[in-house]
Amino acid sequence: MANFDMIIKNGLVVSPAGCSQTDIAIRDGKIAALGKLDDFGEATKVIDANGKYVMPGIIDGHVHIAAPFMGCTGPLDFYSASKAAALGGVTTIIDFTNTMPGDSVLKKIEDRKKEMQIAAIDYSIHAKIVEANAEILSEIKDIVSLGCPTLKMFTTYRRAGVMINDEDILKIMEEAKKCGARPGVHAEDNTLSEYNDDKFTQAGTTGWKYHYISKPPMVEALATKKMIDFSRAVGGELYIFHLTCGEALDEVIKAKKKNLPIYAETCIHYLELNKHVMDDSETGYRYICSPPLRDDKDRMALWQGLKEGVVSVVSSDNCLYDDNEKLGFLDKDKSGNIIPDYKKIANGVSGLEEKLMLLLTDGVGSGKMSISDVCNVCSVNPAKLFGMYPKKGIIQPGSDADIVIVDMNAKKTLSYKTLHYGINFSVYEGKRVSGVPIMTIRRGEIIAEKGHFKAPKGSGRFIKRVL
Q: In sequence order, which residues have a C-beta less than 8 Å from that of residue 5 and are 6 or more positions away?
């Protein structure tokens, strides 16, 4: 009888500290031992990873799957999203509740869990909070008990009904501190953003590029500073979702110098894409996301922030729509031509499947990051910050056997035809990557191999998290 279910031999195992040639033994979905194959005995399956990197499975802590936005839900459900994720080396995702004013957040967590049960990768939920009445405040301790101790609040989108007011933010921060939760924010100043929207509407200047003009870096920096100040006043922790620009990064750097417990995430599209793709009158709408894309100076600042450890996590903020949904709310002139209006475009871009490949190519391949840095920002740090470590995020005995094997010599051209989102375009169309996940293992089971997805629907598990 075999001692182990699986052994991965001859690979370079990636850890936060570096890489070492170590064999991995797996039993009952867990990493059972690290060492030398000769010491392990037999296994049901042996995988030779010679010349390949063996990394912890990627944790994407910021995705939006089947999330309503202006009436759109996108092409993916949680099973089809699992395919794109697994083929990109992702073994765990965290999505959000779809909370609106008047909703019980606890009820919305249960609703989201039911939607996510078809997933083939592991999953959890952030609680989106839009108000702080007595009922919501009383729910926070129960939200933590359910294993969803991370919260998200919006400092913008007042007209969409999801912006939470300043007083309520402070109340949530205070209660989160008491209950062992960590608040997070989508930080953009609503007053300045709405002012610009109204000004551009009145002037008739609503082309795609006015999306990034309406929300300059100042909009993000103002809100980031305020949220850090609020967190400091309360004496709690704070997670900043999707940091995009040098001005907001500077506020995080100042907070870090004061030893404040502030944690920042950026997303792959802010590292890769320049805002001027929105200048194209034909296709610019495809790149509209919030916060907007920035210029190369901001992109380079974010790469530097990763290198210095100021930015702890790279997520995807995967939220995508096809052209029909992106353009579905625009008015048309008498000739039937669409009238561009950036405010009527469903916001979001992809990244769930591409993120690891892009970091390996433009991070590791260009010398901006080491492969251990990628391990940290995509696996170790998300696991720690979101309350899954060491169950997830690390290759060590006792941890879940969530593993991605990467071939740095493999090349691929990103395209809507080679990705698995089911839409008719890619924001990375034609991008050549070097460094491709060739096998993804979730809890000891191979769920993707050489471009083929193998996991059955509903084989993912809800991960109860504790900070």
A: 26, 27, 28, 43, 44, 45, 444
